[in-house]
Amino acid sequence: MSEKWNLSDIFDSLDEAIGVSKKALSRCEQFRKEYEGKVASLEPLAFEYCLVKYSNTCTLLCALESYAYLVWSTNLNDKAVCAFYQDMQDTVKQCKKELTFLEVEICKGLDYAKVSSYLADDEIGLGLKAWLRKCLKFKPHTLSSEMEQLFCDQQSVADYWVRLYNEERAKFSIEVRGKKYNEGELMQLYDSQEAALRAEAEAKRNAWYEQRQDLFALIYNALLRGRAIAQEWRHYTYPAEAANLLNDINGEDLDNLVNTFAREDSSARKLAHRYHALKARLLGVEKLPYQDRLAPYPFETESKPYSLAEAKELILATFAEFSPEFAAIAQKFFDADCIDFYSRAGKADGAYCMEMPVGILPRVFVNFNGRFYDIDVLAHELGHAVHEYVSKKYGELGREKSCAQAETASIFAEQLVFDALLQRENDPRWRFVLLAKHVEGIIATTHRQIAFHRFEDMAHKARANGEVSAQQFQEMFRSVMVNYLGPSVELSGTEFMWAGIPHFFEYDYYVYSYCFSCCVVNSLYEIYKSGKVSNFAEKYMEMLTDSGIENYRQALARFGIDASSPTFWEDGMRLFEQELSELETLEKQLKF
């Protein structure tokens, strides 16, 4: 098992990828010549053949796009790699521009009878039918071929803004007590038992973002304006509508999710406030400094870090206990060197799982440091990877899934590993620590992400009235932080942190997917532990496999969960409340 991933099964070199990208563009141009203006007249078999050719082309484009990102995210300081990445982005966008006519002609040229005949034809595969249904959901918002091509070009420009944002953040370098840190390394100082060191790290991090807030505000304004233009031309009635269509969640459902965590009388909102009050008590302060939300407790002894081998063994053993199939698939990513494990100069912060086309294993990107949190993150990304692997059953088009569905697999994997760690721990103090860290993780996945969503929504609406200043972004961000953190957390310094959330810049309305999926996972996990559903693991693997051809309501119905219930989101926090209640009981028993 190598510490770095091997990308040779995708392309041997940048030059090979560049050569293939040129052939891909020629292939897309040929596809357009063959089918443009003819889609509506195709008989079912000819239509299926058209979609298969389109799917094969998308497979190639996915390989190019993913490879470029993988190389770039581990070489941010290499100007040649950065230029390669942007060139590949531009070429792939040009390819997609050549292909835009297909979805336009499907949405605008096919009548109801034709669509019905395609969907009823047994010769057309389930994956292709699922993709066709998803495509038709956007029929009211699809423009002419010329306008769709223009929006492809506009996205190419937006990509430059995102690249500028990421490359500027990659320059992060701060000296603390005579040592230089990048942002990922600096965040490790927040685990120190020394409050003064945590405060110094946070103050310098805030100062770094404060100095660059005008640049980040300009970048975000440009991206928000581009997204607003698309919304106007496509006749979306509200900014999140496109994301909701992709996630198969309507505006009312999203409002219910947000209100569950944000409204003043929300019982779910109060859970986060209860935990922050508990932590303030045990740290001996009236209000937690913002950076101390995740600080170690005073009674935490210095634990030995997990080695990578130990983390691997723990995760795979846990997965195997749940499902041997799940574990066997996860093992593949270690064996085939599909994981890049450690932080280094030029490597981006954070973690992700990169989807790969049919026939190529997904890639996992982490920055492993041996903490409990790092095991959690590795399990999370492996959950994504297993999900990507099994969903390829229905082909390149049939594996496309909503963001909310994608996050379900990763959060469930986290929960499995946490539960395994908790069951091994008999020491009440360390049981308290594990529970506390998990509760903090749930708050970050639910309450914090809903706060981010609310900020994002405010930013979109404010941008509709003109350019938004850095100070306005600060005020909006502070207001949502007050709501989620509660009265036991000091808010000083939080106003600059909006600029350090990559999801605002790289995606549009993605963040609520984490909260959505966490509630889903909590409900699923309760059923799993109860044993009420026979063959749960098999049904779970089926759910992951079929995620591209069914929506989340259909997926949960196989477990007897009614996702349309008005209390669905509240019910999804029962597991969290149980863990918080155990923490409060342990606090009294241990008499800290």
Description:
With 592 residues, the protein is mostly helical. The chain has a domain of 149 residues: Up-down Bundle (Butyryl-CoA Dehydrogenase, subunit A, domain 3), CATH 1.20.140. Helix content is 67%, strand content 2%. The strands form two sheets. Strands 3-5-4 form a three-stranded mixed β-sheet, with helices on one face. Strands 1-2 form a two-stranded antiparallel ribbon. The mean pLDDT is 91.
Structural key phrases:
single chain, 592 residues, mainly alpha, Butyryl-CoA Dehydrogenase, subunit A, domain 3, three-stranded mixed sheet, two-stranded antiparallel sheet, 67% helix, globular
Number of strands: 5
pLDDT averaged over residues: 91
CATH class of the domain at 14-162: Mainly Alpha
Strand-residue fraction? Answer: under 5%
The largest beta-sheet arranges its strands as: 3-5-4
The helix fraction, in percent, is 55-70%
* Rg of Cα set: 24 Å
Largest sheet: 3 strands, mixed
**Continuous helix count:** 26
Shape: globular
| Residue runs with pLDDT of under 50 for 5 or more positions | none
Q: What's the name of the CATH homologous superfamily of the domain at 14-162?
A: Oligopeptidase f, N-terminal domain
Distance between the termini: 43 Å
Structural class: mainly alpha
Look up the CATH topology of the domain at 14-162: Butyryl-CoA Dehydrogenase, subunit A, domain 3
Secondary-structure arrangement, i.e. CATH architecture of the domain at 14-162? Up-down Bundle
